[in-house]
């Protein structure tokens, strides 16, 4: 099973593609989608196009995103929600099942502690995926952690 994990944002969107074969997890690709400081409609179009490119290149079996939890900055929450909307549109257009996980769920799955800090998440993502160094920036590490969480919690089985 191939999983695309996405840490949504408007300016920076982390993504990570991993393969689950039995209990083994292997990184396929990961990186950052960055949008320039242009109008929001143009930014979300760019996000949509780039997510479709990632989907079409790697052919994931499912997509997982981080659940948006904002309590302080409502403006940021709305902008991230716009980006998440076009990410979900890309998923839907390609017929992919979607799941979302809260930040504490991701930290619990990857680190074993729902209150883990960013460095702990990066370290465990590196260990679980056998990477030479911790993935950076945080958006990329978070996207890989989301994909790992989905691999651990998913009941989807794709026949070989």
Automatic annotation (TrEMBL):
Free-text comment on the cofactor: Binds 2 Mg(2+) ion per subunit.
Keyword Hydrolase: yes
Residues forming the catalytic site: 7, 66, 139
Location within or outside the cell: Cytoplasm
Residues reported in the UniProt entry to bind Mg(2+) 2: 66
Molecular function GO terms recorded: crossover junction DNA endonuclease activity; DNA binding; magnesium ion binding
Annotated Mg(2+) 1 binding sites: 7, 139
SUPFAM superfamilies: Ribonuclease H-like (SSF53098)
Keyword Lyase assigned: no
EC annotation from Swiss-Prot or TrEMBL: 3.1.21.10
Catalytic activity: Endonucleolytic cleavage at a junction such as a reciprocal single-stranded crossover between two homologous DNA duplexes (Holliday junction)
Keywords, alphabetical: Cytoplasm, DNA damage, DNA recombination, DNA repair, DNA-binding, Endonuclease, Hydrolase, Magnesium, Metal-binding, Nuclease
Cofactor requirement: Mg(2+)
PROSITE patterns with a match to the protein in the record: RUVC (PS01321)
Top EC class of this enzyme: hydrolase
Gene Ontology terms describing biological process: DNA recombination; DNA repair
Main location: cytoplasm
GO cellular component, one term: Holliday junction resolvase complex
Cited Gene3D superfamilies: Ribonuclease H-like superfamily/Ribonuclease H
Quaternary structure, from the entry: Homodimer which binds Holliday junction (HJ) DNA. The HJ becomes 2-fold symmetrical on binding to RuvC with unstacked arms; it has a different conformation from HJ DNA in complex with RuvA. In the full resolvosome a probable DNA-RuvA(4)-RuvB(12)-RuvC(2) complex forms which resolves the HJ.
Function according to Swiss-Prot or TrEMBL: The RuvA-RuvB-RuvC complex processes Holliday junction (HJ) DNA during genetic recombination and DNA repair. Endonuclease that resolves HJ intermediates. Cleaves cruciform DNA by making single-stranded nicks across the HJ at symmetrical positions within the homologous arms, yielding a 5'-phosphate and a 3'-hydroxyl group; requires a central core of homology in the junction. The consensus cleavage sequence is 5'-(A/T)TT(C/G)-3'. Cleavage occurs on the 3'-side of the TT dinucleotide at the point of strand exchange.
HAMAP family assigned to the protein according to its UniProt record, in alphabetical order: RuvC (MF_00034)
Annotated family: Belongs to the RuvC family.
Stated name of the protein: Crossover junction endodeoxyribonuclease RuvC
Top-level taxonomy: Bacteria, Bacillati, Armatimonadota, Fimbriimonadia, Fimbriimonadales
Gene: ruvC
